[in-house]
Write a structure and sequence with these properties.
Layout: E1 6-9, H1 16-25, E2 30-33, H2 34-42, H3 46-52, H4 55-72, E3 76-79, H5 90-93, E4 95-100, H6 103-111, H7 116-121, H8 129-146, E5 149-152, H9 158-172
Parallel strand pairs: 1-3, 1-4, 2-3, 4-5
Helix pairs in contact: 1-9, 2-4, 3-4
Bound molecules: shikimate-3-phosphate.
Shikimate-3-phosphate (S3P) binds at residues 12, 16, 35, 46, 81-83, 123-125.
């Protein structure tokens, strides 16, 4: 059965949140974000969950959310944390859209942001840039393999990405 959900996947800082907000502005989609859901379930910030409960616990919450999404969510734009794609049932949740960009461009996008410090601080897996680059190298082929649609977001505005995504999703349906 078709869920009519769009799932945004991609590396930390690639712009999933900004693109999700722009899609909402320009379509009839309602959006939810897996990190937001986790923060409300755990009643604490992602960074705190990593610090106090560990990454494995965070991943178990992602799994719980994925089961709920598959069972209960339709006609929704779902933005995800950069590691959410590892849940086993992603394909069953909806059409998977990868926001793709080279690692250096993603980091530049974050560091150029007026709120760069906060953006880096809230992401524990960006604390060590060398490790983050390794993680990117490991994940990119996996993102590519899973994606139904790939959008190169490099040097594109959120609105440009939105138009491209909505067009490609319509074609894919
Ligand atoms: C993570 C990405 C983060 C957040 C958590 C883990 C990851 O979300 O879910 O810090 O494993 O890539 P963003 O992709 O929104 O930064």
């Amino acid at each position: 059965m078709k869920t009519n959900n769009i799932i945004l996947i991609g590396f930390m800082g690639v712009g999933k949140g900004s693109v999700a907000r722009e899609i909402v502005k320009n379509s009839s989609y309602i959006a939810i974000d897996t990190d937001d859901l986790i923060e409300s379930i755990a009643n604490k910030k992602v960074k705190k969950i990593f610090e106090e409960d560990g990454e494995a616990y965070f991943r178990s919450l992602e799994k719980d959310i994925s089961l709920w999404l598959e069972k209960s969510v339709k006609n929704t734009l779902i933005s995800t944390g950069g590691g959410f794609y590892k849940v086993k049932n992603l394909k069953k949740i909806g059409t998977i859209v990868l926001l793709d960009s080279p690692f250096e461009k993603i980091i530049k996008r974050i560091t150029d942001h007026p709120n760069a410090k906060a953006k880096l601080k809230k992401r524990p897996l960006l604390a060590n840039m060398k490790a983050a680059k390794e993680l990117y190298k490991e994940r990119r082929p996996e993102y590519m393999k899973l994606a139904d649609i790939v959008v190169d977001v490099t040097d594109k505005s959120a609105l440009e990405c939105t138009k491209e995504i909505l067009k490609k999703v319509k074609k894919h349906a």
